[in-house]
């Protein structure tokens, strides 16, 4: 029988974010990634993670930014929330967020050390 991977075992290439040090839970239902949902079935809000620090395209540079254990726990909570959209920040930055609906609230989490 095939072994089902736990969330702690899911890392690259299964994760849909650039920061591969964070654990991606593959068992979370993510309605924003379901193209079959009508606008009325979508969540009222979207959680997004920026790509300015840890989650940037240049992973080597992102790994050089120090992050506390608490920040790691917070970011893992964000990316494993059902309302998280891994491509939401890119869509917002490119102006393509109109397809998400005018009534959608956005909660943006910065992937940089907090103060």
What does this structure look like?
The protein is α+β, with helices and mostly antiparallel strands and 115 residues long. The chain is 20% helix and 9% strand. The protein contains 3 helices and 2 strands; from the N terminus they run βαααβ. It has helices at 59-63, 69-79, 88-94; strands spanning 45-49, 105-109. Strands 1-2 form a two-stranded parallel sheet. The longest helix is centred in the middle third of the chain and has 11 residues, at 69-79. Residues 8-12 have low confidence and may be disordered.
Give the SSE layout.
Blueprint: E1 45-49, H1 59-63, H2 69-79, H3 88-94, E2 105-109
Parallel strand pairs: 1-2
Number of helices: 3
Give the strand order, joined by hyphens, for the main sheet. 1-2
Strand content: 5-15%
Number of strands: 2
Summed over residues and divided by their number, the pLDDT gives a mean of: 82
Along the chain, the helix and strand elements come as EHHHE
Uncertain segments are 8-12
What kind of sheet is the major sheet? 2 strands, parallel
Structural class: alpha+beta
Cα radius of gyration in angstroms: 15 Å
Shape: globular
Helical content class: 10-25%
| Distance, first to last CA | 48 Å
In short:
The protein is an alpha+beta fold.
Essential attributes:
alpha+beta, 115 residues, two-stranded parallel sheet, globular
């Amino acid at each position: 029988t095939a072994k089902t991977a736990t969330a702690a075992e899911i890392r690259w290439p299964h994760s849909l974010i650039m920061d591969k040090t964070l654990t991606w839970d593959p068992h979370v239902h993510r309605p924003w990634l379901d193209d079959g949902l009508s606008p009325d079935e979508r969540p009222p809000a979207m959680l997004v993670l920026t790509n300015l620090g840890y989650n940037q395209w240049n992973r080597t540079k992102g790994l050089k930014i120090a992050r506390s254990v608490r920040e790691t726990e917070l970011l893992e909570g964000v990316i494993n929330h059902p309302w998280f959209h891994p491509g939401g920040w890119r869509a917002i930055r490119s102006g393509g967020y109109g397809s998400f609906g005018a009534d959608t609230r956005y909660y943006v989490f910065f992937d940089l050390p907090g103060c």
